[in-house]
Amino acid sequence: MSQDRPVAELDPIRRLRVLARTLPGALHHAEIVLPVPPERVWAVASDLENQLPLLLSTVRSFTVTRAEGDRLRARAVGTLGQRADFEVVLRPGWCLMSSRFVVGAMAATPEGDGTRFGSLGGFRVPGARLLRPVLDALGDRAVRRFAEHPDLRA
Amino acid sequence: MTGTDSRPQVDPALVRAAQRGDPIALGDLMDLLAPYVGRICGPIARQDGPDATQETLIVVLRNIGQLRDHAALFGWVRAIAVREAVRVAARAKRLSGDPLEEVAGGADQQLATDVGDVLARLSPEHRAVLVLRDLEGVDETTAGAVLAVPPGTVRSRLHRARQSFRKVWES
């Protein structure tokens, strides 16, 4: 039996769903299907330094300060000048970012001729549920902006 | 390969960080456990294996704070994986009649050319017994506790499942 033992795979989109239902705090989780292959989606999504300030109106800059394999350190500067250091795990189809107060993640998996793209963002602070409306608005806008990227059109 | 062989090393510091709710640690723990969970959910839930793996890891990570003895991590995860795999497979309504009878008789036996075909004809509960006893190497009492059935039921399910395999090999 062991030779033919089927192994169930947990693709990045499913990994994101697991985190969306387990991470503490308030989270916004969204998925969309884009009409381009995963490599093209990930070329845009993984360009954190250029894309995050475009997608998130609260981020002025996001700078990678250290990289070792799939582990990065980055410093984000907000539009009001506030700074936050992020731990980042970045590999094809998967990105998880965490600072003291904020968590973010992205995932991409092939679907048909296109790609299912998922995003997750939220606050780790107690009482973050109160920020839910802000979070949902930010998250929805970020996903919309991402889908409108010129490289992600069919 | 037995279940014990396939277990990765897990740093206790990683489990403690995950228990504190650290997102990176929760992600790393998920990455470490996913292949092990997939090897349990795959044979039991078959085409619903990815769903079962996802549901298992949700239960595991949500409840990781309750794990006191870190050495018990894999036994705990295994029990959740088996239960979720059986539940997800049953929910998918792919369980009908007595699949063992289908294996035991009929011309379809000729089509069962590999183990995967035979496994697909067993019920999720019988597949769970095979996974626990033959692949994970747990005793009947432990298997019974995981499946919430008496050890005698584990024995009879295992006997019937193995008998089904033998009949197919010899057909």
Automatic annotation (TrEMBL), chain A:
InterPro entries: Polyketide_cyclase/dehydratase, START-like_dom_sf. It comes from Kitasatospora indigofera. This is Carbon monoxide dehydrogenase subunit G.
UniProtKB/TrEMBL annotation, chain B:
Keywords: Sigma factor, Transcription, Transcription regulation. GO terms for biological process: DNA-templated transcription initiation. One of its GO terms (molecular function) is sigma factor activity. The keyword Transcription applies. InterPro entries: RNA_pol_sigma-70-like, RNA_pol_sigma70_r4_t2, RNA_pol_sigma_r2, RNA_pol_sigma_r3/r4-like, WH-like_DNA-bd_sf. It holds the Pfam family Sigma70_r4_2. Residues 116-163 form the RNA polymerase sigma factor 70 region 4 type domain. Belongs to the sigma-70 factor family. ECF subfamily. This is RNA polymerase sigma24 factor. It comes from Kitasatospora indigofera. The lineage of its organism: Bacteria, Bacillati, Actinomycetota, Actinomycetes, Kitasatosporales.
